[in-house]
Amino acid sequence: MSPPSKGSPLGPIERASLWTSAVCMIGMVVLILAEIVLRGVFNSTTEHSDELVGYLLVGVSFLSLALCQSRGAFHRVEMVQMRLGRRGRLVSSLVFDVLSFGYVALTDWYFLQFVMSSHRREAMASTTLSTPLWIPQTVMIIGATMLLVVLARTIVDDVRKVAS
Description:
The chain is built from 6 helices and no strands. The chain is mostly helical.
């Protein structure tokens, strides 16, 4: 995927990605610390922290994708890139970004089918919370869709660079 433009400000999608994933991370830390204090000091437990932390981990993983893409945090095969000329690197980035967009769009479509199926079947977590599974699964759709928007913007930038 294309490297970020240095010093560019965060757009609304990137800000949403940053803040939602940060809230999930803070929630995870608070739940884990509460569990440690409850177990160590009061010999008690929240009984639900492992499930909730798992849901928040999915949130961090998916909701941070758009920010990671815009900041160039994903791996790149620099060994191949450095052997190409300027135009070759630009075309290579464009092709990779288009392929990434197609893959994420297809995956997002299947996430949507998965969530709709869970909602139709009224699938619930087999825990004492009995969380309707479509709720944490929806985070996958939101994160992948935000990534698609940022990838689309990256592709537009790639096309402009190749054309110039």
